């Protein structure tokens, strides 16, 4: 089964606010995908407002550094590919302007490798697979509230 994820880097305030309400975020991305092409610009503006720009150079560096030892890793321009023979698993990560596009097939092992790298870069990555209704944080955001600094003053 082929899986296709769009992965967005969301603003920290948005990630914190929507933690536990991921369905609302998914609805925005789903509505955008299912909207007539003429109406998509409205959703694109909303998504742009809640997203942060991708740190493309940092992502390139982290991915290359993390995968340089994998014999089945290849990189061409902004497209990274990894294939695992046993179990059969393949994933391709493409760095686009506003989001990352991850396509995978077979077992989840190859896509999980990419997810692990991304979650170390930033905890606010949110992945969406509208076709299969899969979505969630690559790194669950903990909403642990510590005492404010004014408490100790």
General description of the model:
This protein has 153 residues and is α+β, with helices and mostly antiparallel strands. The protein has a single domain, classed as Sporulation inhibitor of replication protein SirA (TATA-Binding Protein), CATH 3.30.310. It is built from six helices and seven strands, in the order E-H-H-H-H-E-E-E-E-H-E-E-H. The chain has a seven-stranded antiparallel beta sheet, sandwiched between helices. Strand 3 (79-84) and strand 4 (89-95) form a beta hairpin. The protein is globular, with a radius of gyration of 17 Å. It starts with a strand and ends with a helix. Residues 141-153 have low confidence and may be disordered.
Describe the structure using short key phrases.
single chain; 153 residues; alpha+beta; TATA-Binding Protein; 7-stranded antiparallel beta sheet; 6 helices; 26% strand; disordered C terminus; Sporulation inhibitor of replication protein SirA; SirA_sf; SirA
> Whole-number radius of gyration?
17 Å
Main beta-sheet annotation: 7 strands, antiparallel
CATH architecture: 2-Layer Sandwich
**Based on CA inertia axes, which overall geometry fits?**
globular
Number of helices: 6
Q: Beta fraction of the residues?
A: 25-35%
Could you tell me the number of beta strands? 7
Q: So what's the CATH class? A: Alpha Beta
The CATH superfamily appears as Sporulation inhibitor of replication protein SirA
CATH fold-level topology: TATA-Binding Protein
Distance between the termini: 57 Å
The tally of domains stands at 1
**Cross-sheet strand order for the largest sheet:** 2-3-4-5-1-6-7
Mean pLDDT over the residues: 89
The SSE string, one letter per element, is EHHHHEEEEHEEH
Helix vs. strand class = alpha+beta
- Low-pLDDT parts are 141-153
Classify the helix fraction into a percent range: 25-40%
């Amino acid at each position: 089964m082929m899986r296709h994820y769009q992965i967005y880097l969301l603003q920290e305030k948005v990630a914190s606010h929507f933690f536990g309400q991921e369905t609302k975020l998914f609805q925005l991305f789903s509505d955008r995908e299912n909207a007539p092409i003429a109406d998509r610009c409205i959703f694109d503006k909303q998504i742009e407002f809640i997203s942060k720009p991708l740190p493309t150079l940092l992502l390139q560096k982290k991915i290359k550094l993390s995968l340089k030892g994998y014999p089945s890793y290849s990189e061409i321009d902004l497209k990274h590919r990894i294939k695992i023979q046993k179990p059969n698993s393949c994933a391709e990560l493409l760095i686009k302007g506003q989001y990352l596009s991850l396509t995978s097939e077979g077992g989840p092992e190859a896509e999980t490798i990419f997810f692990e790298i991304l979650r170390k870069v930033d905890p606010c990555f949110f992945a969406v697979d509208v076709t299969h209704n899969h979505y969630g944080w690559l790194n669950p955001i903990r909403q642990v509230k510590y005492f404010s600094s004014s408490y100790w003053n």
